[in-house]
Structures are given as structure tokens and as C-alpha cells.
TrEMBL record:
<feature type="binding site">
    <location>
        <position position="186"/>
    </location>
    <ligand>
        <name>Zn(2+)</name>
    </ligand>
</feature>
<feature type="binding site">
    <location>
        <position position="14"/>
    </location>
    <ligand>
        <name>Zn(2+)</name>
    </ligand>
</feature>
<dbReference type="InterPro" id="IPR005019">
    <property type="entry name" value="Adenine_glyco"/>
</dbReference>
<feature type="binding site">
    <location>
        <position position="27"/>
    </location>
    <ligand>
        <name>Zn(2+)</name>
    </ligand>
</feature>
<keyword id="KW-0862">Zinc</keyword>
<feature type="binding site">
    <location>
        <position position="182"/>
    </location>
    <ligand>
        <name>Zn(2+)</name>
    </ligand>
</feature>
<dbReference type="InterPro" id="IPR052891">
    <property type="entry name" value="DNA-3mA_glycosylase"/>
</dbReference>
<dbReference type="GO" id="GO:0046872">
    <property type="term" value="F:metal ion binding"/>
</dbReference>
<dbReference type="InterPro" id="IPR011257">
    <property type="entry name" value="DNA_glycosylase"/>
</dbReference>
<dbReference type="GO" id="GO:0006284">
    <property type="term" value="P:base-excision repair"/>
</dbReference>
<dbReference type="GO" id="GO:0008725">
    <property type="term" value="F:DNA-3-methyladenine glycosylase activity"/>
</dbReference>
<protein>
    <submittedName>
        <fullName>DNA-3-methyladenine glycosylase I</fullName>
    </submittedName>
</protein>
<keyword id="KW-0479">Metal-binding</keyword>
<dbReference type="Pfam" id="PF03352">
    <property type="entry name" value="Adenine_glyco"/>
</dbReference>
């Protein structure tokens, strides 16, 4: 368990982003920054679900292919997918070929469309922002779930979403900047 680490460029970062490459780039430019719009939320929710059981770098390296095959995460387009589309995606080597996760993406797009009748996906997720954001100084202090991620998971499942467990929803909350996920001392802390 450790605090921020100094990279080869002399900059302090969260330990998982210390070395040059796709992970550092994601850490420095995107992780913890707020996003806006339904497609941005559906993309992050989808990618976090696909990451389950895999490394985040695997997902980042396949991200452009995910964007292509899921039509820029347009909920209406994905919601219209049928079994033929699932089979086509199961043959697509540029993405993670997991039938349950592909089917969950379609279910989640359909649930996203249905949620428009209420507040919409973005507004809904934002209601689960923690009142007291964490300020971890080391990886030992970082949580993998929170009361908010548990509540978000339950609420999304109640609205028909799939592959939205509490750990995945915590990772989503970090990714989209519901709170600042960076360690105290990381150069990105407080800059989102």
C-alpha cells in the first residue's frame, strides 16, 4: 500500500499511473474529470462493465473499437440491437467478446432510453454523489465500494440495468468525477 509515486518525469501520480503509456495518459487527462451527456455516461458504464475481471489497460486499448461497434454509445442505436448483432459482436476481435457483457450493454441502452421519461441517466447518476468525498492519502485508504455505489447499483438494477454491481459503480463514480478519486499528493488531486 502506497501513496503517490514519482514518475520518470518527476510528477507525483496515483501508483497505477506511474509509468508512461495509456494508463498514465488516462490518469492525467480523463480519470476523475466530470463528463456530460447521455452517451458519455453510457460509454463509461459500458466500459466499466466490460472491465470486470480484466485490466483497465485492456479496455483502454480497445476503446476506439468499442466506440465504433456501439455507434458512439448512442443509446437508441444500441437498444435496437438484436441477436444477429450479438452474434456479429461475438465475432469482433477488436473488443472483449463476452456474450453476457454484450447483452448487458443492449439491456443498459434500453434502460437508458426508458430512463429518459424520468430524469435521464446523467441526472440520475449524479444524485449518488457522496456528501463527504473521500481524500485518501494511500492506496490502503481507497475503497472499492461505498454506501453511494451500493445505492446506485441497487437503484440502477431496479430500473432494469445489468452488470452494475457496487464495485463497478464505484469505479464508474471515480471515472466520471462524482468525487475526486486521486490520492492526496497526486498532481491531479483537486484539478478536475
Amino acid at each position: 500500500m502506497t501513496g503517490p509515486v514519482e514518475g520518470d518525469d518527476g510528477v507525483l501520480r496515483c501508483p497505477w499511473a506511474g509509468a508512461p503509456g495509456v494508463m498514465r495518459d488516462y490518469h492525467d487527462t480523463e480519470w476523475g474529470n466530470p463528463v456530460s451527456g447521455e452517451a458519455a455516461y453510457l460509454e463509461r458504464l459500458t466500459l466499466e462493465a466490460f472491465q470486470s475481471g480484466l485490466s483497465w489497460s485492456t479496455i483502454l486499448n480497445k476503446r476506439e473499437a468499442f466506440r465504433e461497434v456501439f455507434h458512439g454509445f448512442d443509446a437508441d442505436a444500441i437498444a435496437a440491437f438484436d441477436e444477429g448483432d450479438v452474434e456479429r459482436l461475438m465475432q469482433e476481435p477488436r473488443i472483449v467478446r463476452n456474450r453476457r457483457k454484450i447483452e448487458a450493454t443492449i439491456v443498459n441502452a434500453q434502460a437508458t432510453v426508458a430512463l429518459r421519461e424520468a430524469e435521464g441517466l446523467e441526472s440520475f447518476v449524479l444524485t449518488f454523489r457522496p456528501e463527504v468525498p473521500p481524500a485518501p492519502e494511500s492506496t490502503a485508504e481507497q475503497a472499492t465500494t461505498t454506501p453511494e455505489s451500493v445505492a446506485l447499483s441497487k437503484a440502477l438494477k431496479k430500473r432494469g440495468f445489468a452488470f452494475v454491481g457496487p464495485t463497478t459503480m464505484h469505479a464508474l463514480s471515480e471515472a466520471i468525477g462524482l468525487f475526486d478519486p486521486h490520492l492526496v499528493g497526486c498532481h491531479r488531486r483537486g484539478r478536475a
